[in-house]
Write a structure and sequence with these properties.
single chain; about 130 residues; 2 domains; about 15% strand; globular
Length: about 130
């Protein structure tokens, strides 16, 4: 899905993924779901946000239930808080297998603390 959207936008050189013209969404494990929290100082400074939004559009169009994009723009939205993340994650509970965090050090520390306070096992948290 990512490669196909990237190819449309001429970003395919950034992806080392085999382009299968017969891409089949039903091959995705029924328990898989990617929840992608993103945060940018502004829309203009966002990296690949347009691709993520297109992925969300594909998700919505085909009702795949495998991808959810949650974006915060600092100039518009409030910062990530304990309550915001808790509300987003509470429906998944024990199903959460891994969490990957990438960003500035303060952001990583804050999000990791919030996750641990929301009973996410530290072994499931990976810093990228």
């Amino acid at each position: 899905m990512v490669y196909r959207v990237a190819k449309q936008k001429n970003y395919e050189e950034h992806f080392m993924i085999y382009d299968d013209e017969k891409e089949d969404f039903e091959n995705v494990n029924k328990d898989f779901k990617l929840i992608y929290f993103t945060s940018f100082s502004s829309e203009k400074s966002s990296v690949f946000l347009n691709i993520c939004k297109q992925m969300q559009n594909i998700e919505n169009k085909f009702d795949l239930n495998i991808f959810k994009l949650i974006t915060r723009i600092s100039t518009i939205d409030q910062r990530w808080t304990h309550e915001l993340i808790k509300n987003e994650l509470k429906v998944y509970g024990e199903k959460i297998r891994r969490v990957f965090i990438c960003g500035p050090t303060l952001f990583i520390d804050d999000i990791q603390d919030i996750l641990i306070k929301n009973d996410i096992d530290k072994k499931k948290i990976h810093l990228v």
